[in-house]
Amino acid sequence: MLIPILVVRDVPEAIAFYTRVLDFALEFTWPEDQPFYAGLRRGGDELHLNLTPGEGRYGHSSTIVLCEDVDAAFASFAARGFRPPVRPESPVHEGPLEQTWGTREVYIDDPSGNTLVFQQRR
Predict the structure, then answer these.
(1) Which of 24, 66, 69, 120 could be stapled to 18 by a disulfide with Cβ–Cβ 3.0 to 4.6 Å?
(2) How far, in Å, CA of 121 to CA of 119, rounded?
(3) 13-66 confidence digits (pLDDT tens)
(4) What is the pTM of this model?
(5) What is the rounded CA–CA span in Å between residue 106 and residue 99?
């Protein structure tokens, strides 16, 4: 099993986004009072967050999250308040799209700038 570690600028902010919008559950924080590290779970997937303050030191990762129905996942995120950015240069950030390589995907950036690729394989 691989566990990606995303570098974030603010752990509580990232936890709120991942748990309230993207269906992840908080497994642990360390330390508990002012966490700089956290573990999250979504189904059988695990993701860790690591605080690394300082401009340019966070937000450079991307992770693929496989899902059965990317459209339903995206609709659930929108129902929880996610508002996709308008990105004419990257419409896959605005909503699910069929990709030429045979997947249906939507890209979601977390508050630190890391990208999660929600992907449905055909």
Answers:
(1) 24
(2) 6
(3) 999 999 999 999 999 999 988 899 999 999 989 999 999 877 788 989 999 999
(4) 0.91
(5) 10
User: Parallel, antiparallel, or unpaired for β 45-51 and 97-98?
Assistant: unpaired
Give the integer Cα–Cα distance in Å for 45 and 54: 28
Other CB atoms within a 10 A radius of the CB of residue 81 amount to 9
Q: How far apart are CA 117 and CA 62, in angstroms?
A: 7
- Which strands, in side-by-side order, build the sheet including 25-30? 5-8, 45-51, 37-42, 25-30
Residues in the chain: 122
Q: How many domains in the chain?
A: 1
| pLDDT tens-place string over residues 64-77 | 999 999 999 999 99
